[in-house]
């Protein structure tokens, strides 16, 4: 490890922290000024901004003929955004509030987009026209989200956000300053994540890790650091809708914008590695689907549920490491995961189902 790698790493971490602070501050103020809820800002402005590193990495990888890295980056980032980003945010923030529109609209869209990736990947490649479908769906999604928010937002919403952001001295700043915070934060996030990914990739490559695993782990986590920094900070500052909206919105943008634009602009179709098709893409689909029953539980992600998410992610990373090295313990580890993680999932979903039934009965009795 040379000095340049260390400098890149330190700069990356510092830029991510400062960028996340600026982005959350500016986006929260814009939400108050425009009358849009913080969840809509999180699903659009913040989500697209924090997906910029994934877009830069995947486009660069596609033009360098590094398809494994391009695909692994998006798939790995989507898995990390749910299990790692939301997990950390829920644990640090003492739980997260999930807006009803996220449960009813955005999570199903995330699941549908993830499933569409699996369908398109069945022939082991993502073609240009399939990328164009993703881009078209992105335009429809963003346009409809903003239009619906404009129609449903009430004047009282803006007053509520003004009061919530009074500590930020909203009235002493101008919209231009708020936009400057957002743009400056995005620049720092992109620069920070790029520097951090470069440093981490050099370290991983020197250890002989495969390109796909680098994309699924080092690059995926590195490009998800903006989401981690932004969501954790948003949760800590009380903007919990923005924290959830950022992670879910980023997953939607990663598929529709990052994969879509990469497939459209790439000189040729993007090959989908067998390893990604048989394991990682299905895991991305399952993780997206798992959000539905968990988020629907009182429209919240509780702290203990966040801890479960982190446990799942640790188990996933453990499998990738053992599988990449073809370790002798790989099969035993798989048995342990199937014997522990899957039953834990069943128990978790069963508890949620029971709690939902009790809640529904209580409401019925109250009426």
Following the backbone from N to C, one meets helices and strands in this order, namely HHHHEHEHHHHHEHEHH
Head-to-tail CA distance between termini: 66 Å
- The amount of helix comes to over 70%
According to CATH, the fold-level topology is A middle domain of Talin 1
Oligomer: single chain
**Contiguous runs where pLDDT drops below 50 for at least 5 residues:** 153-168
- Domain module tally: 1
Beta strand count: 4
Largest sheet: 2 strands, antiparallel
CATH superfamily: NCX, central ion-binding region
Q: In which order are the strands of the major sheet placed?
A: 1-4
Mean pLDDT: 76
Describe the structure.
By secondary structure, this protein is mainly alpha-helical. The chain has one domain: A middle domain of Talin 1 (Up-down Bundle), CATH 1.20.1420.30. Helices cover 83% and strands 2% of the residues. The protein is built from 13 helices and 4 strands. The strands form 2 sheets. Strands 1-4 form a two-stranded antiparallel ribbon. The chain has a two-stranded antiparallel sheet with strand order 2-3. α1 (3-34) packs antiparallel against α2 (38-50) and α1 (3-34) packs across α9. The chain is globular, with a radius of gyration of 20 Å. Mean pLDDT is 76; it is low at 153-168.
